[in-house]
Design a protein that fits this description.
Layout lengths: L6 H5 L4 E3 L15 E2 L5 E8 L9 E9 L7 E6 L7 H6 L1 H4 L2 H6 E6 L15 H9 L7 H21 L9 H15 L4 E6 L1 H12 L4 E7 L8 H23 L12 H17 L12 H9 L8 H12 L4 H11 L10 H11 L7 H14 L4 H6 L13 E3 L10 E8 L5 H10 L3 E9 L9 H13 L7 E2 L1
Parallel strand pairs: 5-6, 5-7, 7-8, 8-10, 10-11, 11-12
Antiparallel strand pairs: 1-9, 2-3, 3-4, 4-6
Length: 482
């Protein structure tokens, strides 16, 4: 919330799909590790496609670990969010993102959840089809534009069903959490130690709900609130991005190179909205020769809002866009949706949408979503309509296996640390408050700052509390602030 996304990734925040009765799977065999460079080891874990049928068809989960360098406690599983974010790639960056203390005491273990990346992946569109879909006008102003968006969304859903018919109904967060418990057992850990960010908080909270007695320590950083509707999630997130833009604008207006001419953050929002409306009428040009449509410009503006350190990049992108050049916005958009310079995509966009739709218990109709988009545009004029329309493909999605769980309580679990950032653009702070309240053993740690997620973002206070909790199991006092 990265954390990363396309239009599905921006919506990217899910309700749980779970609750089905499952047979207890046999204990998995220990993993067979092989060297995969830079001191990392890689392995594959076989898990049931359908956890209710543990002896049926199996799929593969790709796993990577960086062995502990000191007095080892066990494994620390990590997830970067998304959904659709690669835990393999995230673990590769562990030396730069995790403290030396954590790397000394834990094997750092990343994995791609089912449907994602190097695990058995969801497949839907060709690269060219995906480019067209992402660039499509997704804030329809006319009946014809809405019809075009509906048809493209329907085509996306049908393509996923055609290319991934067996996997598609089984990529819910609850099933990924069950995979994570099998991974815990295969690693030889009696209980789970876990650091999840953004969507990874939902995966961690789901695990705690399903397996409360197997929780050692969970850090849920930048929490998702599973108790509210999909439409409310999207509306809250759109508001969160606009809160972040106001903070950016206020900071920008104090610099000599600020491209914004507005004198107040509210006026800056209007200035940003005007720029996006212009790209809707006339796309920006770019050095690669790809037209920068309103959808791509919106993605390009959203990306730098995730991290305060990238606000200068947003200023540079907006300055160029004001001259008609969308090259920098396009580069940011490509980063967000997993597009490489050669035009190929990771499956991040497809898996994100598949997991989002699998976790959405009652997808809204097109008519209901149009009404919600109108409401969102009033509450969040710059990003509201775009974010709300992002889940339109779920309207055409096949029903997933399982029953939604909307409030993870994890009764009897060890203390669970929920970390919320006051001005988080992608996972608004009150979601962290709500999740901490829902979990019976939830403890809230607040970062009074900007950006998406808090651990490793520059706060020594946050990092120290998280490290101490994971290593010693000593959680900070509830409602501690940094």
């Amino acid at each position: 919330m990265a954390t990363v996304w396309c239009r599905a990734l921006i919506a990217a925040l899910l309700l749980l799909t779970s609750g089905c009765t499952t047979a207890e799977p046999p204990e998995p065999a220990p993993l067979t590790w092989s060297d995969c460079g830079d001191d990392f080891e890689c392995a594959r874990l076989s898990v049931p496609l359908d956890h209710a049928q543990p002896s049926g068809e199996h799929i593969q989960i790709s796993v990577i670990r960086l062995p502990a360098t000191g007095d080892r406690i066990g494994s620390l599983l990590i997830n970067p969010g998304g959904p659709g974010g690669s835990g393999i790639d995230y673990a590769r960056a562990a030396p730069a993102m995790l403290s030396q203390d954590l790397r000394a005491r834990f094997d750092i273990v990343g994995f791609d959840p089912r449907g994602v990346g190097a695990s058995t992946p969801i497949k839907c569109l060709t690269d060219d089809q995906l480019s067209t879909f992402i660039a499509l006008d997704s804030t329809p102003d006319t009946p014809a534009e809405q019809t075009a968006l509906e048809q493209a969304s329907k085509n996306f859903a049908e393509a996923c069903q055609a290319r991934s018919p067996n996997l598609l109904p089984h990529v819910s967060t609850a099933n990924a959490a069950r995979d994570m418990d099998l991974l815990r057992a295969a690693l030889g850990d009696e209980k789970l130690t876990y650091l999840g960010k953004s969507y990874g908080t939902l995966l961690g909270a789901t695990y705690a709900h399903l397996f409360p007695g197997r929780v050692r320590a969970l850090v849920l950083d930048g929490a998702v609130d599973p108790a509210i509707t999909r439409e409310r999630l999207n509306l809250d997130q759109a508001k969160g991005f606009e809160t972040a833009f106001r903070a950016y604008a206020k900071d920008c207006q104090g610099t000599a190179t600020c491209p914004l001419t507005s004198k107040t953050p509210e006026a800056a929002l209007t200035e940003m909205s005007d720029l996006l409306r212009q790209t809707d009428k006339s796309p920006l040009v770019s050095a690669p020769g790809r037209p920068v449509t309103e959808a791509l410009a919106t993605l390009g503006a959203l990306t730098p809002l995730y991290d305060r350190n990238t606000w200068p990049a947003l200023s540079e992108s907006l300055a160029e866009a004001q001259k008609g050049d969308g090259t920098l916005l396009l580069s940011s958009a490509d980063q967000l949706v997993g597009r490489s310079d050669d035009g190929t995509y990771s499956n991040q966009t497809e898996s994100s949408l598949a997991i989002t739709c699998a976790d959405t218990p009652t997808p809204p109709s097109s008519q209901a979503l149009a009404q919600a988009a109108t409401t969102a545009a009033k509450a969040a004029p710059v990003f509201g309509s775009y974010v709300m329309w992002s889940i339109l493909p779920c309207t055409f999605w096949p029903r997933a296996v399982g029953t939604p769980v909307t409030s993870p309580k994890a009764p009897g679990a060890a203390p669970i640390l929920v970390v919320g950032t006051r001005r988080d653009p992608a996972t608004p702070y009150h979601w962290s408050q709500s999740l901490a309240d829902q979990l019976e053993s939830g403890t809230l740690l607040t970062y009074e700052g900007d950006g998406h997620t808090a651990y490793g973002s520059g706060s020594t206070c946050i990092d120290t509390h998280v490290d101490d909790y994971l290593i010693t199991l000593a959680a900070p006092a509830d409602r501690t602030r940094c």
